[in-house]
Amino acid sequence: MLLSTAVLVVGLLSTVITTAYSFLEAKEYQDDMLRQIAWLASGSKRHEAPWLPVKREPAISLADGDARIQVIFLPEEPRPDWLPVNISSALFTCPSPEGEVRVLIAKDATGRTLIITQPTESRDELAWQNAIHSSIPTVLLLPALTLIIWLVVRRQFRPVRELATYMDRQRAGQPLTLPRQDIPAELTPFIHALNRLLERLQNLLVQQRRFVANAAHELRTPLAAFSLQVQNLGNAATKEEMQNRLQILKEGLQRTSKLTEQLLNLARVQSGAAIADPVDISRLARELIAEYLPLAEAKHINLGLGEEEHLLISASFENIHLILKNGLENAVKYTENGGIVTIRLARSNNTAVLEVSDNGPGIVAAEKEQVFFSFHRAASSLGSEGSGLGLAIAWEAAAILGGSLSLHDQPTGSGLIYRYVHPLGKEISR
Predict the structure, then answer these.
(1) What is the pLDDT of residues 71-83, one digit of tens each?
(2) What stretch of H or E contains 256?
(3) What's the CATH fold of domain 275-429?
(4) What are phi and psi of 11, to 5 degrees?
């Protein structure tokens, strides 16, 4: 509809321009006609030009009643009173008792002066007639052209309307790819792009359903245990037994609180609402080492900062904190007593490299990517506390920051390297 309206507006504008141009052309043509009459009259005597319809009166009219052109011969005939005395132009417009007239003054071979006149009213009438006649075809064709364009556009966009109807009829929870049959070649790339988007959306919905189911399962188990522990608490025979059961209940509450915190962190990271700020990676590493040092000392783990390059990057502090914290927490948790956990900070090929290495049991190659899925736990971590969310949260945070997170085996001996690579770009390094 918009295209048809645009065509109609452009057509009307062109019609107006054409009409105005035809009007001016018609008036110019009438000036040329006055010049031709003057030339014909100046080159012949009256008796030698019987085809020139003149009269013996002072005002000699041509037979053309529409044009109303008059020829006056001077000095044989009286000079009109309205004619200016001092004339600088041979073709001009001036007032007369009968109205405004167009005047042409010329000389013939004998020296006589010819005055050819034409009322401007007649000139304008003839010019408007010519202009209107020239614009009639355009005016008649505009509605037909607009209708044709509307029909063609409507026909061409019919597949788009059908696709829109198809998408409206889909169920919200199960998007289906769009059909590719009977689609114009111009729309094929658009359909392919939409199908790729729908496929990604479907995968996200599947992941969301899996996440919700796993989260419900992870929360259901401790809640059921809480219910049982509360019942057992009332059956405690002694104060000591009651304290033991309260301690078990307290530990369960702590684990559930930890799980809830991780779920909230994952939702917060996935929202992408974090703000980028300058982050001192070296300072953050030392703070995290101080936080996990008591746990490391309890397991006699040598925890420290190894290779260090002072890096100041622009990123979300919360996301960077989650990435480094999860790597350090897993390393300390799963490294055996007397092990070694080291944080390494370096710059490589315009990237910041953050590594947490340990000499623990490691992870089999087949699970190095699966552990980044929500609620997935490596076989080596079964039997220990954990929800399987830490690495998933770290991976989401890394993706939002535009970095990459990966796990690697130690080059020598057992152990694992937890590596995050952050693109520096215009970041500050010192």
Answers:
(1) 888 877 788 888 8
(2) helix 239-271
(3) Heat Shock Protein 90 (3.30.565)
(4) -65, -45
